Structures are given as structure tokens and as C-alpha cells.
């Protein structure tokens, strides 16, 4: 195992998810993080767009968030399988796993059905973007409210706006992700 | 204008030389590929032009310092054996791929999900959009999942995937590879990558592998043939450890 001088082992490089993850990564109910029919369900949705503003039909997004009570412990059962047939059982309808995975459709659109995150500070859902053409995934955040926040406050106004989802009717939040160019989404690193 | 392999070779070598020169001049080693790597044409309109914004890693309320968890209900026992998922045996050279999932301190990441997907022995994915005229194998899908054990170890049984053509430029071929998707204990450690096989003659020509401009980092994407992992009369063994990057703040947490 390769080590550097500080004793840390050296990381495995990232490679693109490529175009053919579609039969491997997405799983039934990957977008349904909220138990079905939950009265507090919210929808986060939008388009993933490239540098020419064209929708990206082969992106896959992952979402991670605090439970409504603020817990960040998560729970297994996102990809729940039937041990007899190997088929998908889907989520068990009660545990909140905090994890969602959604591929964009032919229009570059995604939709996530979840519960409001209860993290300290402004509520946000963490987003990880994979796509053909992306050699290394990108992180961003979909904030469900605007207000005082160390990250948002560090950004100029027009860039700040790219991280704040817009509330529409029926508890629906619109959050577009622009990988490049005009209105480019703020992407994050965690040093 | 259709690009030839020699056009791409020039770009690959320019990027390689620029990186080598920068490191020789004291620039930091880059373990990951740059997102704007022109020889991989699909990247051109898909990388952010603004610099990434740093989130202070030390705040325990940073949601990304925790991450999703998976358990035995998320997989079945045969999910890690891609050779038994259909009625018959898949065509191709049977292999075992095994290794450890570690953090940057070398500690095992336990009980965490590893997913993989790959082409069949002929280099064809069981995916509608893969239209290259190589045969599909009715006995091979090419998707696997497993959880790491208490030592962080994973094991898959599968067949060796074939090389396949793609449309990045004229006569572009991907070296044989297996796609891996891996979770750590923090969302910031998330990794999607590809494992390659030793001594593949296609390595120098592939813009995706060559996007990792650091040679020793690139070598870490190549599995090692392990004779002890080979099973008599049955399969060949490859060993490949996966080390998750992530903010320094996560390295002090106990691995699951
Ligand atoms: Fe591939």
C-alpha cells in the first residue's frame, strides 16, 4: 500500500461514472426517501444543465440529509432486497434512511420526495452529482430557506442564489443544477 | 471534424508534460483527475469554471461529515457473485476480485456498501444504449453489490470484462475495466471509480485513465494479479484495495 511521508495512505483516484450506470446504480424508490403518503412530504426537483444550458439526460444525483428530528445517523434499508428472490422490496415505509439516488430523465429532470431536514441552522439537503463527462463527482447543497448561514454568507449575491431552492406550490422546491457557464451552481469542497 | 487517436495522443501528452513539469517545480501532487480534461470530450461542457467553494470541515454540524448507512437488508447473499445470477454460466474468464476498503489512515471501513458494474466478456454492457455489435450474454448482467466485512474486505466473483469501443474519437477503445461505487463513513468520502487489469496495452491511449495525470495515482487504479487468490480449476484472482479520500476532519473518526 502506497504511503506518503505523513503516514497517510494515498487515495484511489476518481473516474467517471460513464454512460452505462443506468442498469446498475438506480434502484426502485431511490427517489422516495419519505415514507409514502407521509403528510410532511416535500418535493425537491429541477434540471441538470450543461455549459450550453442543455439538459443532461445521463446524470445521477445522490442526496443525503438529516432526519426531521435532526439525526444524522441514517438507517439501512434504502436498497432493501428480498433475500428469497433477490428482488427489490423497496423501503420499509417507516425508517427514514436519509439517502436518495435519482437518475435524470431524458429531459435532464429529477425529482426527490423526502421529509424536511432538521439539521442545525438553515435546512439543507446535500447533493452529489455524477455524470458521463464528469471525471470527479461534484458536491452542492440545496438550501430550503434563505437566511444567515456561514456558507451562504460567504458568497456574492448572484452565486448565493444558486444554492437556494425556490418554494413553489404543494411543498415543491425547485433546484436546478448548472454545471458550467451562466448561473453556474456553487460547488463545494471539504478540505 | 473527427479526431483521430494521434490528435488525442498529442493532447494527452501535453497534459501529462504540463503536470510533470508543475510537480517538478513544486506544485502539489494531484491524486484525482482534473474535471476539465479536454482529451475526454464529454468533459468539455460539464465542468464548473468557477473554483470550488471550501466548506470548513471541522464543524460537527456539517451534514456531509456523516453519511448514509447500509446493512444486510440492502443486499442478498448472491449479490457479490455475478456468475450465478442466471440459469447458466456466463461466458468468459472467471475471476475473483477482492481487496480492502480503507480510509486515509489505513483503517478499514466496515459494513459499508460496494457496488460494481461491468461489460461482459465480449465488451458489451447489458444496457440499451450500448449498441456496439458484440454479443450480449443471456447469463450475465454485470451488476454486483456487497458489504465490507470487519476487516474492510470485499469479495466479488465475476468474469473478466472485454475491452470495448466508444465514440470519443476515431478508433477509441476502453481498456478492460470494472466500475466501482463506494461509500465511506462520511458523504465527503464518496467515490466512483474504475478498476483496470495489469499490463493492458490500451492504457496509453485511453483519455479516461490518462485523465489521472499523476503516474503513481494512475497505478493505484490497476489491480494486482494474486496467484493465492486464484482457485484451482476455477478462477483467477485479482487484488485491489480502495482508499477513500475525504476531509482531514473525517480521518479521526472511528471507521465503521
Ligand atoms: Fe465502462
Automatic annotation (TrEMBL), chain A:
Transmembrane parts of this sequence: none
Protein name as catalogued: Protocatechuate 3,4-dioxygenase subunit alpha
All residue ranges annotated as the Intradiol ring-cleavage dioxygenases domain in the record: 27-122
Source species: Streptomyces ureilyticus
Lineage: Bacteria, Bacillati, Actinomycetota, Actinomycetes, Kitasatosporales
Known EC number: 1.13.11.3
Pfam entry (one): Dioxygenase_C
PANTHER family with a match to the protein in the record: DIOXYGENASE, PUTATIVE (AFU_ORTHOLOGUE AFUA_2G02910)-RELATED (PTHR33711), PROTOCATECHUATE 3,4-DIOXYGENASE ALPHA CHAIN (PTHR33711:SF9)
Keywords, in A-Z order: Dioxygenase, Oxidoreductase
A GO molecular-function descriptor: protocatechuate 3,4-dioxygenase activity
Family from the record: Belongs to the intradiol ring-cleavage dioxygenase family.
EC top class, as a word: oxidoreductase
Automatic annotation (TrEMBL), chain B:
GO molecular function terms listed in the Swiss-Prot or TrEMBL record: protocatechuate 3,4-dioxygenase activity
Keywords: Dioxygenase, Oxidoreductase
Top-rank EC class of the record's enzyme: oxidoreductase
Alphabetized InterPro entries for the sequence: Intradiol_dOase_C, Intradiol_dOase_core, Intradiol_RC_Dioxygenase, PCDO_beta_N, Protocat_dOase_b
Domain Intradiol ring-cleavage dioxygenases: 97-125
Domain of life: Bacteria
SUPFAM superfamilies according to UniProt: Aromatic compound dioxygenase (SSF49482)
Known EC number: 1.13.11.3
PANTHER family documented for this protein: DIOXYGENASE, PUTATIVE (AFU_ORTHOLOGUE AFUA_2G02910)-RELATED, INTRADIOL RING-CLEAVAGE DIOXYGENASES DOMAIN-CONTAINING PROTEIN
Family: Belongs to the intradiol ring-cleavage dioxygenase family.
Protein name, entry field: Protocatechuate 3,4-dioxygenase subunit beta
Annotated gene: pcaH
Amino acid at each position: 500500500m502506497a504511503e506518503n511521508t505523513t503516514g497517510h495512505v494515498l487515495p484511489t483516484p476518481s473516474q467517471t461514472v460513464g454512460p452505462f450506470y443506468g442498469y446498475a446504480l438506480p434502484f426502485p424508490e431511490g427517489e422516495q426517501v419519505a415514507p409514502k403518503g407521509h403528510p410532511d412530504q416535500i418535493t425537491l426537483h429541477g434540471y441538470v444543465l450543461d455549459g450550453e444550458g442543455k439538459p443532461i439526460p445521463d446524470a445521477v444525483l445522490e442526496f443525503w440529509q438529516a432526519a426531521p428530528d435532526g439525526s444524522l445517523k441514517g438507517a439501512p434499508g434504502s436498497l432493501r432486497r428480498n433475500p428469497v428472490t433477490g428482488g427489490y422490496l423497496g423501503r420499509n415505509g417507516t425508517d427514514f434512511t436519509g439517502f436518495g439516488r435519482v437518475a435524470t430523465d431524458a429531459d435532464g429532470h429529477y425529482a426527490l420526495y423526502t421529509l424536511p431536514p432538521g439539521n442545525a441552522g438553515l435546512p439543507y439537503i446535500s447533493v452529489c452529482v455524477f455524470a458521463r463527462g464528469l471525471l470527479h463527482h461534484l458536491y452542492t447543497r440545496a438550501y430550503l430557506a434563505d437566511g444567515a448561514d456561514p456558507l451562504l454568507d460567504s458568497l456574492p449575491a448572484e452565486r448565493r442564489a444558486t444554492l437556494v431552492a425556490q418554494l413553489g406550490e404543494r411543498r415543491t422546491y425547485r433546484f436546478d443544477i448548472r454545471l458550467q457557464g451562466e448561473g453556474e451552481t456553487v460547488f463545494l469542497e471539504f478540505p | 471534424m473527427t479526431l483521430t487517436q494521434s490528435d488525442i495522443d498529442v493532447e494527452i501528452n501535453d497534459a501529462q508534460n504540463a503536470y510533470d513539469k508543475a510537480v517538478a517545480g513544486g506544485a502539489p501532487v494531484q491524486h484525482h483527475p482534473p474535471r476539465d480534461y479536454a482529451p475526454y470530450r464529454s468533459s468539455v461542457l460539464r465542468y464548473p469554471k468557477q473554483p470550488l467553494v471550501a466548506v470548513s470541515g471541522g464543524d460537527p454540524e456539517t451534514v456531509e461529515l456523516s453519511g448514509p448507512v447500509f446493512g444486510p437488508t440492502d443486499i442478498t447473499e448472491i449479490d457479490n457473485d455475478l456468475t450465478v445470477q442466471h440459469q447458466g454460466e456466463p461466458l468468459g474468464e472467471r475471476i475473483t476480485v477482492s481487496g480492502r476498503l480503507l480510509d486515509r489512515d489505513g483503517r478499514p471501513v466496515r459494513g459499508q456498501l460496494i457496488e460494481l458494474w461491468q461489460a461482459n466478456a465480449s465488451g458489451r454492457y447489458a444496457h440499451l444504449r450500448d449498441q456496439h455489435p458484440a454479443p450480449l450474454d443471456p447469463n450475465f448482467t454485470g451488476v454486483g453489490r456487497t458489504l465490507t466485512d470487519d476487516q474492510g474486505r470485499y469479495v466479488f466473483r465475476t468474469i473478466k470484462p472485454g475491452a470495448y469501443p466508444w465514440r470519443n474519437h476515431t478508433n477509441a477503445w476502453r481498456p478492460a475495466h470494472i466500475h466501482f461505487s463506494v461509500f465511506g463513513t462520511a458523504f465527503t468520502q464518496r467515490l466512483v471509480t474504475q478498476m483496470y487489469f495489469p499490463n493492458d496495452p490500451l492504457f496509453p491511449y485511453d483519455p479516461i485513465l490518462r485523465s489521472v495525470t499523476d503516474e503513481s495515482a494512475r497505478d493505484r487504479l490497476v489491480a494486482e494479479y494474486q496467484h493465492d487468490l486464484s482457485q484451482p480449476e476455477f478462477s483467477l484472482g485479482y487484488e485491489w484495495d480502495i482508499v477513500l479520500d475525504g476531509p482531514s476532519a473525517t480521518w479521526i473518526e472511528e471507521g465503521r
